[in-house]
Write a structure and sequence with these properties.
The chain folds into three domains: 125 residues, 4-hydroxy-3-methylbut-2-enyl diphosphate reductase, catalytic domain (Cobalt-precorrin-4 Transmethylase, domain 1, 3-Layer(aba) Sandwich); 82 residues, 3-Layer(aba) Sandwich (Rossmann fold); 98 residues, 4-hydroxy-3-methylbut-2-enyl diphosphate reductase, catalytic domain (Cobalt-precorrin-4 Transmethylase, domain 1), CATH 3.40.1010. The radius of gyration is 22 Å and the shape is flat. It is 38% helix and 19% strand. Helix 9 packs parallel to helix 10. 41% of the residues are buried. It is an alpha/beta fold. The chain has a five-stranded parallel β-sheet, with helices on both faces. A four-stranded parallel β-sheet has the order 3-2-4-5.
Length: 329
């Protein structure tokens, strides 16, 4: 069926034509790069196996590559038998109870939590120590949210997922309120939820600087920019990647008629692509550039293609590796 559609779009020159716009920045952020390097350097330094709690980042290609090098992924450290091998905690962060369990078992662990997530943990701790009740804007079940909520005693943080949650939340104890957010949210959705909380509760204390990370904001701005002039947006990323899914949402809100998530070239929805279209490509912060190139190459096999890079920001952020893996320690 797809081949028939393609054939019907062949131009007089012999091939259907498509213009590709590559949103820049896209793909790996500094936190993801640091987390992947942490696993790779631990394997080099200590040898296989290296255990990793949860996916180090949400991307199957990356996980499969690390597995091939000797990484073993587990959901909980209780799955790990007694070992001297390193145990790495993912970029999303972990609850304090996980760290305590690792200490009690005398596990050699390396924390690859993104420093921007750690910043949110610290803010939550400060609000709690000042007697404030904390509202966390985020998605239930996401490992970053679970890790952040798990920094404090049960009940200290209330999760707000939607505007409806903001409408029905009751400040029963009349506490001073503070808010924090998941780092990978839609900027627009978060602003709408926060506006509702401010409407209901007036002064609510937030971070000095948005908890939504620079990479999430930059990628959303970049895809919003090209969505206005594209017929289709392909966002490279995994279905369990929050920031990648937000790129699809932002593209649709920005005016493109079709936007979809693709993990690999095999997922390209060929029926969406027609002669004369402008197709935008972006990638979530956990998606490697090699997959973007794979998708571009696959499109080139079917269409006469021009490629243009549309840059909205330049990134030069880098985070230090965990101390035990630094060459200068």
């Amino acid at each position: 069926m797809d081949d028939m559609r393609f054939a019907s779009n062949v131009s007089r020159s012999g091939r259907a034509k498509i213009k590709l716009l590559l949103a820049t920045p896209r793909g790996f952020c500094a936190g993801v790069d640091r987390a992947i390097q942490t696993v790779e350097l631990a394997l080099e330094k200590y040898g296989a196996p290296v255990f990793v709690r949860h996916e180090i980042v949400h991307n199957k290609y990356v996980i499969d590559c690390l597995k091939a090098k000797g990484a073993i992924f587990v959901e909980e450290i209780d799955e790990i038998v007694e070992t001297d091998a390193p145990v790495i905690f993912s970029a999303h962060g972990v609850p304090k109870a996980v760290l305590e369990n690792a200490r009690l078992r005398n596990l050699f662990y390396i924390d690859a939590t993104c420093p921007l997530v750690t910043k949110v943990h610290r803010e939550a701790q400060i609000h709690y120590e000042k007697g404030r009740h904390i509202l966390m804007i985020g998605h239930f079940g996401h490992p970053e949210v679970m890790g952040t909520v798990g920094q404090l005693p049960k009940g200290a943080i209330t999760l707000i997922e939607t505007i409806k949650d903001a409408e029905v939340f009751e400040n029963r104890n009349n506490n001073e309120l503070a808010y924090i957010t998941q780092t990978t949210l839609s900027v627009q959705d978060t602003a709408a939820i926060l506006a509702k909380l401010e409407e209901r509760f007036g002064l609510i204390i937030g971070p000095n600087k948005s908890n939504i990370c620079y990479a999430t904001m930059n990628r959303q701005k970049a895809v919003s920019n090209i969505a206005k002039i594209c017929d289709v947006i392909l966002a490279v990323g995994a279905p369990n990647s929050s920031n990648s899914k937000r790129l699809v949402e932002v593209a649709l809100l920005s005016g493109v008629s079709r936007a979809t998530l693709v993990q690999r070239a095999l997922d390209i929805p060929w029926g969406y692509l027609q002669d004369g279209m402008t197709v935008g490509i972006t990638a979530g912060a956990s998606a490697p550039e090699i997959i973007v190139q794979e998708i571009v190459d696959a499109i080139k096999t079917r269409f006469e293609t021009t490629v243009k890079f549309i840059t909205t920001a330049n990134e030069n952020v880098a985070f230090n590796l965990p101390y035990v893996l630094r060459e200068d320690r």
